[in-house]
Amino acid sequence: MSEPILIINNLKKYFPLKRSLKQVLTFKKAGYVKAVDGVTFNVKKGEIFCLVGESGCGKTTTGRLIARLINPTGGEMYFKPKPEILELVPDRYIYKGKYVKLEKLPSNIDKLLRREIQIIFQDPFGSLNPRQTVYSILEEPLLIHGLGKTKDERTEIIYRALTEVKITPPDEFIGRYPHMLSGGQRQRVAIARTLVLRPSMIVADEPVSMLDVSIRAEILQLMLDLKESRQLTYVFITHDLAVAAYLCDRIAVMYLGKIVEIAPTNEIINNPNHPYTKALLAAVPEPDPSNRFKIREIPIIGEVPSAANVPPGCRFHTRCPYAMDICKKKEPDYIEVGTEHYSACWLNAKESKT
Amino acid sequence: MTLLEVRNLKVYYYTFKGVVKAVDEVSFDLKEGEVLGIAGESGCGKSTLAYGIMRLVPPPGKVAGGKIRLAGYDITSMSEDEIRGNIRWKVVSMVFQGAMNALNPVYTVGHQLAEPLIYHKGVPKREALEQASKMLRAVGLTPDILRRYPHELSGGMKQRVVIAMALILNPKLIIADEPTTALDVVIQAQIMNLFKKIKKEYRQSMIFITHDLSLIAEIADKVAIMYGGKIVEYGTSDDIYLRPMHPYTQGLLRSIPRLRGKEKITWIPGVPPDLRRPPPGCRFAPRCPHVMDVCRRKDPKLKEVEPGHYVACWLY
Fold first, then answer.
1. What CATH number should be reported for the domain whose range is B35-52+79-91+171-311?
2. How many whole angstroms separate alpha carbon B235 and alpha carbon B66?
3. Which of A98, A118, B21, B234 would bridge B310 by S-S if both were Cys, CB 3.0 to 4.6 A apart?
4. What is the pTM of this model?
5. What is the mean pLDDT of residues A154-163?
6. Could you tell me which CATH number the domain at A4-353 has?
7. Residue of A188, A212, A249 best to disrupt the B interface, most CBs of B under 10 A
């Protein structure tokens, strides 16, 4: 539980903006959307690590970077694969005896590592090919990675994965197309698709937000069970703090491409430090009928500014109720405010000086 | 005073593959100044019910039976012209799901806000724009937005404009259909605060439709839980949240993860019924943990179990 399986250091992803004709003619430089702008964290083996934030905060982009669906603009990622995978990696790509730097690798090694980190997408209606049967959806990754030499072996792996995600009996489902499945079943097929490759880590990008409330819990429980039986590590991405609180061991709160606060779940929920985290927590609705008599105090104003035009200094200062002069000029560093609890806010710096 | 009276309402969709009974024998009342929350999973008929009250059921859907009385008008028997001239927007207006698409991208906000005043009330344009700017202030926006186009506004601002539109003719009833689904939590909380303010300051009657029981707790005085086109439980907010009786309501409440408190959440096994061929008897029977023989044969009627608390379940 203690050793990191994934180390992320100052990870960045900038998306270039299109220039207008006028900008091209006047040789103006292209602007960037700084979707992820210097994110640093570790994910420990066997934990559920959560990225929380509003839309546009860069949480999904971070997930896609970890799954290596897109290449980072800067920063490093180190990943510790399973011993049997590590054996196959030549020494020159290995750091500290057990980590592989995720960057441009020769394609055969790259493939091995892609097997280790898999991703579940938000929308099970869009992530499964409507023209493939469940069987061929699950067989494709095996064929690509050359797992399961014979058809029988592959079928066995597929049946096992389907049984694990409780799509039973598998016989009844392998011939079906995605439209013949319910939303919950589709998401379970998407989970089975990651399992057939026996990954060490799964990036789950809002896996339950498109599902009805009554079946959400079922998928969450399934993910918890699989974590135990398959010894998985999750990077769980969600906008819903209640789901994060229920499921995760540690939570990182993101705002405009940066992590503003990172701590064990209990600390984030009961002892939040950053004004943004506090506001997010205050905004979560709860099924308590007495709430109808009170107005919720949401201490922050306005909406998230555009990531193409990030405010200088602390990027939250435009909405922060405690904004001071320094917030507009300098970006705050992370300060340890509790055990494993880091927050990037000038309010803490001021306290420590006095 | 009763503002809205819905009796045995049936809204069916006549598709080639059969009749979808989206709303089937639904009855409820709404008093003036009250907020009714309607909750249920996708496909339970909650939006169709709203369209039925607005007389906006899209084809091939039709109101197949039942009565709706709203502020003394018999909505079900009026002609489309009467509805358009006297009812829709004047008596009942709606905040649609997805504010992003509810506004016309080629007209300014001012034009769209003033339009109902010009057409319904014959107010001169300048005056209409003045009223529109007052309305914008009431929903927490600045009047300079009048000259802006929808794409220049953020999601939360657009949602506020849509709410201003629903309020502009001072209707007796506002129906809000998933008004915050596309918004972030912080903006969602701000919009909910706005609804609370409207409820308090204007004593506005509202029907608030969402799949999220936590949101309904934020605003509703009465709550109706829908399942498979029927209301399965109806009562005050306290009844539903503190003393839920129907197994479906209990299951729904247990499936919501809480921020604090580590109770294990559970789920309701199975899937909602196909409304073309609903199961005989109680529609929840195939998923119900307490199912009995009678549930599979006969459909339970809504029954008053405590004063004001109605449940459709053979257990009671």
1. 3.40.50.300
2. 22
3. B234
4. 0.88
5. 94
6. 3.40.50.300
7. A212
